[in-house]
Amino acid sequence: MADEEVNGDTDEVQHEKDKTQKKAAKHDSGVADLEKVTDYAEEKEISSQDISGALSLIGDRRNKETAERLEKEKELQKVSVKKDDIELIVKEMEISRTLAERTLREHRGDLVAALITLTN
């Protein structure tokens, strides 16, 4: 009976070793697959010329947008609005004076159109 217990323990130990080996083999195959993917990605190098070109495009676009925004602000400043209209919008809509004035300027001083925009 003692021999059976020893053999039983040995079988369990052997079974555990087999499980561990199977897990290691499965893990190793996953690592190999991952290596294939990373090797491919590493082969593609990004040149500094491409990066600088992309950055210059982004910078140019940002400068263009800033220039357009400044041009729009200049045009809005040319529009004359009545102070009474601004005060009316501030009181009725309970918004800041800056927002009221900007909205009124965007609508070329048209009080009704500005109010409609602010209520929508």
Automatic annotation (TrEMBL):
<dbReference type="InterPro" id="IPR038922">
    <property type="entry name" value="HYPK_UBA"/>
</dbReference>
<feature type="compositionally biased region" description="Basic and acidic residues">
    <location>
        <begin position="12"/>
        <end position="33"/>
    </location>
</feature>
<dbReference type="GO" id="GO:0043066">
    <property type="term" value="P:negative regulation of apoptotic process"/>
</dbReference>
<feature type="region of interest" description="Disordered">
    <location>
        <begin position="1"/>
        <end position="33"/>
    </location>
</feature>
<dbReference type="InterPro" id="IPR052617">
    <property type="entry name" value="Huntingtin-int_K"/>
</dbReference>
<dbReference type="GO" id="GO:0050821">
    <property type="term" value="P:protein stabilization"/>
</dbReference>
<protein>
    <recommendedName>
        <fullName>Nascent polypeptide-associated complex subunit alpha-like UBA domain-containing protein</fullName>
    </recommendedName>
</protein>
<dbReference type="InterPro" id="IPR044034">
    <property type="entry name" value="NAC-like_UBA"/>
</dbReference>
<dbReference type="Pfam" id="PF19026">
    <property type="entry name" value="UBA_HYPK"/>
</dbReference>
<feature type="compositionally biased region" description="Acidic residues">
    <location>
        <begin position="1"/>
        <end position="11"/>
    </location>
</feature>
<feature type="domain" description="Nascent polypeptide-associated complex subunit alpha-like UBA">
    <location>
        <begin position="79"/>
        <end position="119"/>
    </location>
</feature>
